[in-house]
Amino acid sequence: MKTDNKQTNFLILFFVAATCIVTGVLIGALTNLINGKVSPYYYQAIMFWDFKDIWIAAVAQGILEGLLYGVIFSIIFTITFGLVTKGQGTFIFAIRQLIKLTSLVLIFWTLGGLFAMFLAALSPEFYKAHFPMTPSDKTEMLKFAWVGGSIWGGMIGGLLSAFIGIVIIKNNWRQDLEIR
Description:
mainly alpha
C-alpha cells in the first residue's frame, strides 16, 4: 500500500512541476502576444530584429523565456510544495497556490508597464536619456515604455512570486491542516 502512496505522491509532484512549466510558457506567450502588438518597435530596437512578423517572433520569444522561467519557478515551487506538505499535498491545493502566484506575476507585469508609461509621460527627456532607443513620437514612446516596463514588472513579479510562494504554501498548508 505504501508503494502506491509514494507513486501517487510522485505523480502529483510531477504534475505540479509540469503545470508550473506550462504556466510559465502561457504567461510568456500571453504577455508577449500583447506586448508584440503594442510596440513591435520595442523588439526591433532591443532585440535588433529587422524582419516581418515581429509580433509572431515576440510570441515565440515569450514562449522560450516563459519556458526557461517556468522551469526555474517549477523547481522552487515543486520542492517547496513537496517539503512543506511532506508529500501529502493534493494537486488541487498546489493549483490554488499557483493561481495566486500567477496573478501576482500578471499584476506586477501590469504595474511595471503602467509605471514606465507614467515615467515616460511625466518626463520624456529623462526617459529618453535613460533609454536612448526610445522613439520621439509621444504615442510610440508610451508604447515602448509599456513594453519595457511590463517586461521588468513581470520579471520582478516572477522573482517575488517564487519567494512569496514559499510563504503562501507554508501558511495555506497549515490552514488546510487545521481545517481537517
